[in-house]
TrEMBL record:
Domain of life: Bacteria
Official protein name in the record: Polyprenyl synthetase
Pathway per the UniProt entry: Isoprenoid biosynthesis
GO BP terms in the entry: isoprenoid biosynthetic process
Gene Ontology MF annotations: metal ion binding; prenyltransferase activity
Annotated family: Belongs to the FPP/GGPP synthase family.
Pfam families: polyprenyl_synt
This protein's UniProt keywords: Magnesium, Metal-binding, Transferase
CDD domains: Trans_IPPS_HT
InterPro entries: Isoprenoid_synthase_dom_sf, Polyprenyl_synt, Polyprenyl_synt_CS
Length: 345
């Protein structure tokens, strides 16, 4: 592959903000072209969700997320010797899939705020939100099918669609277990691998495919992304309890709903007095009040659930890097790994 082309078009950045800005430059035009494939009013709803339009369809500049997944696809491609631009279809498809799942997830969770503004379903209703998610999924496959070299299309679309199946498995388990009963840590990990790890693995594997990498390199990138996805989900669980809504753009609502996320499960299995009190709070039949939420957060912290989750995120990040042979462990991928594991609460 043409490594020098990558170096000329996008120099290795090494700083998280530069890596994300470079990725945004590559992915933004492709995302806009992809969204333009949608019929009205789905195009307008997608523009709103992605932060380019306000609810009335007027141009806006709102938060559209950090674009970590496209950055992973692009950096995986350059780490495998490809040109950054050649990963654009993979980066766009990954971001479309990610947004399709968020739009559906907000419906399932009944969440009314994402990225600091009302969710799609809470503005346009559940039917339109379901349709928009479906349409973004279809457009993602279309982007890969129409914009990748013919030799890569088959494996790339296969990988994308099997990832969506895995996402659905993870999400189904999450919805059916996590709010009904206390899962084991192993179950939490299976859920996290399905709903978050699989897509991050797919981003990295698609990036490698775009570079024309061989199967061992694609598989190593997939493992790297999956492990990193586990770290991402663990940090997301911390954000779901201790996150600042002004930073995360969503209320820290996991305790109110009595969701069994990893910090909660880790605290409950600690065998401490705090665990006993937390179990009582979680076994009541209604949402927790503000005072109960604050108490639950204290109990989780004193039972060690917060620090265990933090350390586990760090361990997963290191294990992600261990999945990469030295020649694939680029500086940019290492920076992205740290960014994922240390993002702000
Ligand atoms: C097939 C589908 C719909 C998959 C959803 C995958 C996903 C990562 C949802 C968000 O998880 P979350 O509920 O833990 O995160 P958030 O707090 O952002 O809603």
């Amino acid at each position: 592959m043409n490594a020098s082309a990558a170096i000329i078009s996008i120099p290795p950045a090494h700083r998280p903000s530069e890596i994300l800005a470079n990725s945004r430059e590559i992915v933004d035009p492709g995302l806009r072209i992809a969204v333009d494939l949608l019929p009205e009013p789905l195009r307008q709803m997608a523009g709103y969700h992605l932060g380019w339009l306000d609810v009335r369809g007027e141009p806006a500049r709102m938060s559209a997320g950090k674009l970590v997944r496209p950055a992973l696809a692009i950096c995986a491609c350059t780490a495998c010797g490809g040109a950054a631009d050649s990963a654009a279809p993979a980066a766009v498809a990954a971001e479309l899939i990610h947004n399709f799942t968020l739009i559906h997830d907000d419906v399932m969770d009944g969440d009314t705020t994402r990225r600091g503004r009302p969710t799609v379903w809470s503005v346009w209703g559940v039917s339109d939100a379901v349709l928009l998610g479906d349409a973004l999924h279809a457009v993602a496959a279309e982007v890969l099918a129409s914009r990748l070299p013919a030799t890569v299309v088959g494996p790339a679309v296969d990988r994308l669609e099997s990832t969506v199946i895995e996402l659905c498995r993870g999400q189904h388990e999450d919805c059916s277990i996590a709010q009904e009963r206390e899962p084991a840590i192993g179950e939490c990990e299976r859920i996290a691998m399905g709903k978050t790890g699989a897509l991050m693995g797919c981003c990295c594997a698609l990036g490698a495919l775009c570079a024309g990498a061989d199967e061992p390199a694609v598989a190593a990138m997939d493992r790297f992304g999956r492990e990193l996805g586990m770290a991402f989900q663990l940090v997301d669980d911390l954000i779901g309890i201790w996150g600042d809504p002004n930073v995360s753009g969503k209320p820290a609502g996991d305790l109110a709903r009595r969701t069994y996320t990893v910090p909660v499960v880790a605290a409950l299995r600690s065998g401490t007095a705090a665990a006993v009190e937390l179990k009582q709070l979680y076994s009541q039949p209604h949402s927790l009040s503000a005072a109960q939420i604050a108490r639950a957060a204290e109990l989780i912290e004193s039972a060690g659930g917060r620090s265990w989750t933090r350390q586990e995120a760090e361990r997963r990040m290191k294990s992600a890097l261990d999945c990469l042979p030295a020649q694939l462990a680029s500086a940019d991928l290492r920076v992205l790994a740290r960014l994922v594991a240390h993002r702000n609460l």
